[in-house]
């Protein structure tokens, strides 16, 4: 049985259709991430699952119940919002048990739940404090605790980490991941942060303009993007998109690549039937920074070419080097000990085995 099924769901605000037929299905215990740029409809979809927004068309099924027109309180969900407003006059303990109080759970039982949740989130020493005496991360944990006190069939999170500073965000991200591994809860989590999506999700729905562009595991989406938008959205630094002319070679195809005034022919060592119709035309080569690495000298290899270095950015574990290929700035991830400086040439090796190709007009993947 599925934990959640979203069937042909549409949403219009007046004449504007913001969700255009969404279909998603997840199993119990799965961590689903809805990711996409601002305004693509993530929160609207989450709010519809929660029952905070009406559904214009289609159905939402939680477990074996169609909940499309049910009240939020009857859906067996718990939600953590982006602005996790805690009640300022209540202690942490009272904030966590507030929903239980409303549901008229007896006090001794409430205490058991609060203790369990506080232990899970490691906030036991904070239970008697008021929110103003907590750090941002601690407040976030209390907001999470309020949801976890409920034990629903699905947790809904809308950008729960976006108010935290970078370091705390990374810490809380691991804690959420650990919590999910331990408790095996079903989670739908909205973010516009592709790193959060890659690190947390079992499955990702990449959204754009009210549509799901691709649904799959993080690795599937990273390795096998359906189109140029997804390829560019997932991964940091982004995939490089280099327009190049495709020609036929003896045993496959070649790409004409120019850098620093020198043209090199790179061999395409993959079997992509769709490329046949692009011979003599332009294609967009999608190559990730980690697929371009430095080699010490000009080895007689069809995958090595001299490139002019424009920018060098050390990050610690690796160094990002910007070169220019066919007139386009291209980022390569090289070893921190690589010898490179702006204006100097360096020999780079291209791993085209994982490269992807796109149609320059439609931006769709060539397969
Ligand atoms: N009540 C409303 N009335 C009219 N339009 C709305 C309403 N709520 C949202 N929208 C529009 O629907 C679209 C989707 O909004 P939504 O809040 O779902 O985006 P989002 O993906 O969550 O974006 P963000 O990452 O910025 O939070 C936007 O264009 C927004 O302006
Ligand atoms: Mg939103």
Automatic annotation (TrEMBL):
Keywords: ATP-binding, Nucleotide-binding, Transport
GO CC annotations, alphabetized: ATP-binding cassette (ABC) transporter complex, substrate-binding subunit-containing
Biological processes per GO annotation: carbohydrate transport
Coiled-coil region: none
Recorded GO MF terms: ABC-type transporter activity; ATP binding; ATP hydrolysis activity
Domain called ABC transporter: residue spans: 4-234
SUPFAM superfamilies: MOP-like, P-loop containing nucleoside triphosphate hydrolases
Listed NCBIfam families: PRK11650.1
Protein name, per record: Sugar ABC transporter ATP-binding protein
Organism for this UniProt entry: Leucothrix arctica
């Amino acid at each position: 049985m599925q934990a959640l099924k979203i069937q042909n769901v549409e949403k219009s605000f007046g004449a504007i259709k913001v969700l255009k037929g969404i279909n998603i299905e997840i199993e119990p215990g799965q961590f689903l991430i809805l990711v996409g740029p601002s305004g693509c409809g993530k929160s609207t979809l989450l709010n519809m699952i929660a029952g905070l927004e009406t559904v214009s068309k289609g159905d939402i099924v939680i477990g074996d119940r169609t909940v499309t027109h049910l009240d939020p309180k009857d859906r067996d969900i718990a939600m953590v919002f982006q602005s996790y407003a805690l009640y300022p006059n209540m202690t942490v303990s009272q904030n966590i048990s507030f929903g239980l109080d409303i549901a008229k759970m007896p006090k001794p039982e409430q205490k058991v739940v609060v203790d369990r949740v506080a232990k899970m989130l490691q906030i036991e020493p904070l239970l008697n404090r008021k929110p103003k005496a907590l750090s941002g991360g601690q407040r976030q944990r209390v907001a999470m605790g309020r949801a976890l006190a409920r034990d629903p069939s699905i947790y809904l999170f809308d950008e729960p980490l976006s108010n935290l500073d970078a370091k705390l965000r990374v810490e809380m991200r691991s804690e959420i991941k650990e919590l999910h591994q331990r408790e095996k809860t079903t989670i739908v989590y909205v973010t516009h942060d592709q790193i959060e999506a890659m690190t947390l999700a079992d499955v990702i729905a990449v959204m754009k303009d009210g549509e799901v562009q691709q649904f799959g595991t993080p690795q599937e989406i990273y390795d096998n993007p359906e189109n140029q938008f997804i390829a560019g959205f997932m991964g940091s630094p982004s995939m490089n998109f280099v327009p190049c002319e495709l020609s036929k070679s003896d045993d496959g195809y070649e790409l004409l690549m120019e850098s620093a005034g020198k043209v090199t022919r790179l061999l395409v060592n993959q079997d992509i039937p769709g490329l046949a119709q692009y011979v003599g035309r332009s294609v967009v080569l999608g190559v990730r920074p980690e697929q371009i690495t430095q080699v010490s000298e000009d080895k007689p290899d069809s995958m090595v070419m001299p490139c002019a270095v424009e920018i060098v950015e050390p990050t610690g574990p690796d160094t990002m080097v910007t070169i220019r290929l066919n007139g386009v700035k291209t980022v390569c991830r090289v070893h921190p000990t690589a010898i490179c400086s702006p204006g100097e040439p360096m020999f780079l090796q291209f791993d085209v085995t994982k490269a992807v190709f796109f149609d320059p007009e439609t931006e769709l993947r060539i397969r």
